[in-house]
Protein: HNH nuclease domain-containing protein
Amino acid sequence: MIPAMRSLKLEERDRATSIFNDIIMRFEHSQTPEAECGYKPITLIALMEKEVSEKDEFLRLFFSFVGQNPSTEGGEWETDVEHMLSRLASFDSWTTEEIDALRESLAAFAKYLVDNSLLPRRPPELMQDARPLLCSVKAFAAHTPQPIPAPLSPSILSDAAISTPQRVSILRRDCLARDRHRCVITRKFDAEEAGTRWKREKHNMKDDDGQLFSERDTFAFVEVEHIIPHFMPLSNEGGERKLASGHTIASTDAWLTMFQVESKQVAHRILNMFNPTAVNLINGPNIDRPRNALTLTHGLHRQFGEFDIAFEPIGPEPHTYKIDHVDPDDFVSVEKLLITVTLYLTPDRTIDPPSPELLEIHRAIGRILHVSAVGDYIEGFLRDMEEMEGGGVIPNGSSRLDDFVRFRLTVTGWLEGRSPAL
Structure:
């Protein structure tokens, strides 16, 4: 059981931060090579602590995990912060065996973060917009579906009654209107909308600001991209859990339900560390609201969905961002970046602008994925899972059966359409 999160006392925070930094400094230069685990575990932990806003909660989670008493039956979580810190404060004087055990605990904590906050919760066959829990990674940049925009008539349906495809259609309509049918980065006008206006108005066609287009104007097909994507495969209505694939999990599958509820709770807890309001911003139908979406050209849509592009707020002007690649040295780019853009707003604010909080989470996760090499690790992980989905073994000859079973349970809650044998 993971202990409930709460703020640290001032002296606890100072001591915890100091010990955390000492541990990172001691182990980061000698961390497990990427060739062995696929990413940099200590760098991942250090980046998470740096990027989250709720540092007390992260530190408590960190020390609760790595400070577990190995002799405790059942691996229960240590909850006495002072005791944990006192034990870890002297790690420099530990024996070689104790240091090795701490190194293994750090690697296990890094894997815990990856498994519960970065791995996808839906495989591609269940949803086109299959992404990791907090955000998408390069291997799963399948993008937000682009349905025909909903009519401009008001909907009489409640949020709960609108299916996800309907919500996404309304989302596309609203974002195109808010962003003036233009990519928010390049400002290129939507080619599809331009074609419609050309048929209707010919040389008199105008943009959303009432300006005539010129022969020098170029157009591009624009798409709407979620900032934080759909990440939970289950809905919970009528006392049943229904999979996106149409399977129903009986409420009697207590073990499976407990497994998924705990996974969701851990994921939300980690998401809350980045921003305490984040879960409410994207919970349920809120995930398909304009504050969680941007209008982008196809190429930028893909790179944003793959966490190659970040929006960093600058200056006193609201909704103004420096936009650049997460890796500024990245040679491959569909557009020349490092530009400053002020996002479009509707005059009466009837359509919310993209949320600065969600854009900041997207930026933070992108940096974590890139610098720690977790993004590349997840690409390989998903390729391995795809190999096993087809009944084969992965290229190195192993099967990763434990990973495969856990992944399938997490992303679908169902293995081959059946509940797990108990």
User: Anything to note?
Assistant: DSSP finds 14 helices and ten strands in the chain. The chain has a mean pLDDT of 76. The longest strand covers residues 320-325. The beta strands are 189-190, 219-220, 222-226, 234-237, 240-243, 248-249, 293-297, 309-313, 320-325, 339-342.
